[in-house]
Specification:
single chain; about 375 residues; alpha+beta; FAD/NAD(P)-binding domain; D-Amino Acid Oxidase, Chain A, domain 2; 2 domains; seven-stranded mixed sheet; six-stranded mixed sheet; 22 strands; about 35% helix; about 25% strand; globular; binds 3,4-dihydroxybenzoic acid; monooxygenase; FAD/NAD-bd_sf; FAD binding; oxidoreductase
């Protein structure tokens, strides 16, 4: 197959990129090794920055972020048994939307297929050959060889990216940090326990009370990275969650899904080489605290779409040359924010009494300061997309 842009990975970044390219009249082919059903049913994060919602508005009514999702004008930080509201509207006049990533994917896939996008599921990229006419060497669902020749290849194929090697020379090379904890995530059938999300620092570790709908809730608690999801009974899961959110009685209900989320910070050393560029998790990973992952992927795509427009419509390379530096500014701000929220809210296994008291001092510094609250609100709702 020949096309102008080959996009490896049909996550939020790859799908939105194909839409933005089509708006500029640039044809693309998107492949993903997963099935459509797998993509549309994998549970991921749930918070969209205001700028992400605005960009999704450009796919038209197919985006249900505003109709099915819910606007949230604040969150609560809880520590020492007391809740402190971060009022986004009052601090920065912005908001976020609670709308699960797999719903975003359903919307994007429906819109792309309706627009006639060449979108192929079950196609596994094996490697990318960089060069003037870069090629994606892949296999289809039956194992038959499949190749795409393009003018440009974009790796939007997630944290275990195959495309990364064509940019960095290795599948791993990057700035990297691990954390000595993970999140145990549950989905349960119950009404919301709180109007807004609660990020709770407790002596027993962190918990996050999030939501999905009027009848389904998403909650997480800090656990050891090697925790087995089967290790807890349902009653034990509720005990773990409840003891970390003192002051709020959690509304319990059947838990129908459990997963463990790993915590990593990663930025690839290089984000573009020749005619191949990386976006989203292929380029960087953040720990989940603060929900920056998908939003950051979408911010990359916005910058890359403009650069590809300049390259492919006007033969102008300047924006593409600037791509790594342009997106790195936001990537490292988001790296800092995600690390900061993580380190401020979790109980490190090796923390001393000094560390714990300092952490509470840090939380108090934020919630008792107009400027501290404003920094958190600004970062959480998302920095402007155009700078
Ligand atoms: C959710 C996940 C996050 O990492 C976060 O900071 C807020 C919400 C969620 O899945 O609902």
């Amino acid at each position: 197959v020949r096309t102008r842009v080959a996009i490896v990975g049909a996550g939020p970044a790859g799908l939105l990129l194909s839409h933005l390219l089509e708006q500029a009249g640039i044809e693309s082919v998107v492949i993903d090794q997963r099935s459509r059903d797998e993509i549309e049913s994998t549970i991921r994060a749930g918070i969209l920055e205001q700028g992400t919602v605005e960009l999704l508005d450009t796919i038209g009514p197919a985006s249900r972020a505003r109709t099915v999702g819910h606007r949230h004008d604040g969150i609560e930080l809880r520590f020492e048994g007391e809740g402190h509201r971060i009022d986004f509207a009052a601090s920065v006049g912005r908001a976020v939307w609670l709308y699960p990533q797999h719903e975003v994917l359903k919307d994007l896939i429906a819109a792309r297929l309706a627009a006639g996008q060449d979108l192929r599921f079950g196609v596994t990229a094996e490697r990318i050959e960089n060069g003037d006419r870069p090629r994606v060497i892949a296999r289809d669902a039956d194992g038959a060889p499949f190749e795409i020749e393009a003018e440009f290849v974009v790796g939007s194929d997630g944290s275990r990216s195959v495309a990364r090697a064509a940019v960095t020379g290795s599948s791993t090379g990057g700035y990297f940090r691990e954390y000595p904890f993970a999140w145990f995530g549950v989905l349960c059938e119950a009404p919301p326990s709180s109007d807004e999300l609660i990020y709770s620092n407790s002596p027993d570790g962190f918990a996050l009370v999030s939501q999905r709908s009027a009848t389904v809730q998403r909650m997480y608690f800090q656990c050891a990275p090697d925790t087995d999801t089967a290790a807890y009974s349902e009653a034990q899961l509720w005990d773990e969650l409840q003891k970390r959110v003192p002051g709020t009685e959690l509304k319990q209900g059947p838990i129908f899904q459990r997963d463990v989320l790993r915590f990593r910070s990663f930025v690839a050393h290089e984000l573009r080489r020749g005619r191949v560029a990386l976006v989203g998790d292929a380029a960087h990973t953040v720990p989940p605290t603060g929900a920056k992952g998908m939003n950051l992927a979408i911010a990359d795509v916005r910058v890359l779409a403009k650069a590809l427009r300049a390259l492919l419509l006007d033969g102008e390379e300047r924006l593409l040359d600037a791509y790594p530096e342009t997106v790195s500014r936001r990537i490292w701000k988001a790296q800092h924010f995600s690390w900061w929220m993580t380190s401020m809210l979790h109980a490190a296994p090796d923390a001393t009494d000094f560390d714990r008291r300092r952490q509470l001092g840090e939380l108090r510094t934020v919630v008792e300061s107009e400027h501290g609250r404003a920094y958190l609100a600004e970062a959480y709702c998302g920095w402007p997309l155009d700078v």
